[in-house]
Automatic annotation (TrEMBL):
It catalyses: 1,2-dihydroxy-5-(methylsulfanyl)pent-1-en-3-one + O2 = 3-(methylsulfanyl)propanoate + CO + formate + 2 H(+); 1,2-dihydroxy-5-(methylsulfanyl)pent-1-en-3-one + O2 = 4-methylsulfanyl-2-oxobutanoate + formate + 2 H(+). InterPro entries: ARD, ARD_euk, RmlC-like_jellyroll, RmlC_Cupin_sf. This is Acireductone dioxygenase. The lineage of its organism: Eukaryota, Viridiplantae, Streptophyta, Embryophyta, Tracheophyta. One of its GO terms (biological process) is L-methionine salvage from methylthioadenosine. Its cofactor is Fe(2+); Ni(2+). It comes from Actinidia rufa. The keyword Protein biosynthesis does not apply. Its EC number is 1.13.11.54, 1.13.11.53. It is an enzyme of class 1 (oxidoreductase).
């Protein structure tokens, strides 16, 4: 089953809830790709031998990986870490995550500065482009096991909003310009 994404209702309720608008407004994989978000469905039970993951890593230069078990029982200062992940930010590099177990939400800003909530579950590999405003939270299961992938050495530097002058943000915005002026972008993958 493909990943699910929707426009979020912004409110002060528990961040781990779905926050669907009424009526629900789902977002397609094509729309996510237009925003630079890439997605693959992999086998989370046999990721060590997954040929598709091997091809993706080779093609995109993902040479380093590690694991993150995120739940109250396994993470020191859990509530503080979750608050930090949920603070709107960008990175100077792509953020690449493969969900192996559990589930959670990546929220990204669209061209209108609205939140899109992306629900990742076991087998979902998602790539957020450098410079996109985003945040992360668990859902009500309170558990996710992620494989984090990197080009070269891992970098976890988050730059909290506003970051309009950050080089990665400027490059990201310029990558969206063809869509704003009606030019049809090339296929994502």
């Amino acid at each position: 089953m493909a990943i699910e994404a929707w426009l979020m209702e912004e409110n002060d309720e528990d961040q781990r809830l779905p926050h669907h608008r009424n009526p629900k407004q789902f977002v397609s994989l094509d729309h996510l790709a237009d925003l630079g978000v890439l997605y693959w469905q992999l086998n989370p039970k046999d990721y060590e031998n997954d040929k598709e993951l091997e091809k993706i890593r080779e093609a995109r230069g993902y040479s380093y990986s590690d694991m993150l078990d995120l739940c109250p029982e396994k993470v020191e200062n859990y509530e503080e870490k979750l608050r930090n992940f949920y603070t709107e930010h960008i990175h100077g590099d792509e953020e690449i995550r493969c969900c192996l177990e559990g589930s959670g939400y990546f929220d990204i800003r669209d061209n209108d500065d609205s939140w899109i909530r992306i629900w990742i579950k076991a087998g979902d590999l998602i790539v957020l482009p450098a410079g996109i405003y985003h945040r992360f939270t668990l859902d009500t299961t309170n558990y996710i096991k992620l494989m984090r992938l990197f080009v070269g050495e891992p970098v976890w530097t988050a730059y909290n909003r506003p970051q309009e002058d950050h080089p990665a943000r400027k490059e990201y915005i310029s990558s969206l310009l063809p869509q704003k002026i009606g030019v049809v972008p090339l296929e994502a993958h």
